[in-house]
UniProtKB/TrEMBL annotation:
Residues covered by the Transcription regulator PadR N-terminal domain: 15-87
Gene3D superfamilies: Winged helix-like DNA-binding domain superfamily/Winged helix DNA-binding domain
Protein name (Swiss-Prot/TrEMBL): Helix-turn-helix transcriptional regulator
């Protein structure tokens, strides 16, 4: 399994967390922020990002706003009230997953991280 497959499985959590930290973002901005935060190690493609954004929107976790910026139309995404609640749930789920993976791959090591 490549890191791309792992990234795809975490994409919704990444999107929700970034939108929690930033009031609103558009798709390209999300991809660039992930690239920046990971020093280029994680690259989210449009083919992965937009289906994830649309799914989160359909689930009522994101709302959208269209704005005209420099003769371009941008679709901004932001968290709904339900989305704000879901961030905590997704982060707890991710934290538990990573802790369990640590137990499996390195049973003697106590996890020392904060998600």
């Amino acid at each position: 399994m490549s890191s791309n497959a792992l990234l795809k499985g975490s994409l919704q959590t990444i999107i929700l967390k970034l939108l929690e930290e930033n009031e609103k973002m558009y798709g390209y901005e999300i991809t660039q922020r992930v690239k920046e935060l990971t020093a280029g190690e994680f690259k989210i493609t449009e083919g992965a990002l937009y289906p994830a954004l649309h799914k989160l929107e359909a689930e009522g976790l994101l709302s959208t706003e269209i704005q005209q910026v420099d003769n371009r139309v941008r679709k901004y995404y932001s968290l709904t009230r339900s989305g704000k609640t879901e961030v905590s749930s997704k982060l707890a789920e991710l934290r538990a997953f990573v802790e369990n993976m640590q137990r499996i791959v390195n049973p003697g090591l106590k996890p020392d991280f904060n998600i």
